[in-house]
Amino acid sequence: MSLNIKFGVSTWLWTSPFQTDTVSLFPKIKEMGYDVVEIPVEDPSLIDVGAVKEALAQYDLKPVICGAFGTSRDLTHDDPAFHQTSFNYIESCLEICYELGAGFLAGPMYSAVGKARLVSSEQKKIEWERAVLNLTKVCHMADSRGLKIALEPLNRFETDLINTAEDVVKLVKDINHPAAKIMLDGFHMNIEEPDIERAIRLAGSDLIHLQVSENYRGTPGTGQTRWDAYKRALEAINYEGVISIESFTPEIKELAGAVCIWRPLVPSQDGFAREGLQFLKQWNN
């Protein structure tokens, strides 16, 4: 049975940061057969939203907006100044979502990426409660614009707070706001989840976005990923969102360093996007 889904690709596959002239990728993305472009917003000031909206319409692409949470964007930091920096950034991203007609902002917005430490249970509880409190505020910000947020677990090397579907389901339950939803990423699940099918089923109807690549962050269909498990689980929860390919180019050194890609994963980033989509369309038949 085919899933009623659309396929997308992140512009991180080719470049970083996304800025207005990154729309030059849109005709290629459309020509390859994608319906959706995933736009990672590292610096909102680099983006002319009107120009991006025009390009999306011109090439008949739908947007998904993802946040980037570096060290200064941390809703669980001991210093409340970091919370305000995060709120300001998230608000800018939500405005971009609203203007471009994207229904949600996705990402690991509970904490700074790379904040992975062994902390006491007391400190963990403090940071969890901060995440719940501050993400509830974010949910109100999103809801006022008719939007949702999609919270993403990361692997243990990138965060110590939310690593699994079970973690993020508990976080969403504790936030207890209708705008709080879930995004899962196959790369992180491959590290953290004993059973990807169970993880997706656990997220259930709260799953509103899914990112995929291979277990080694390469082209879908070339690695050890249990694509049969994805299919069974997504059918079971009647998933009707977007499945986006997310990986990165080693050519952008700052980005490659942040995600620890020290070698080319493919001969060509265009080949990655084209062959990955071909595989996913065949998988969905």
TrEMBL record:
Pfam families assigned to the protein according to its UniProt record, in alphabetical order: AP_endonuc_2
GO MF annotation list: isomerase activity
Task: Tell me which residues make up the Xylose isomerase-like TIM barrel domain.
Answer: 28-282
Task: Specify the protein name.
Answer: Sugar phosphate isomerase/epimerase family protein
Q: Which Gene3D superfamilies match?
A: Divalent-metal-dependent TIM barrel enzymes
The record, for InterPro entries, names: IolE/XylAMocC-like, Xyl_isomerase-like_sf, Xyl_isomerase-like_TIM-brl
- Keywords (A to Z) from UniProt: Isomerase
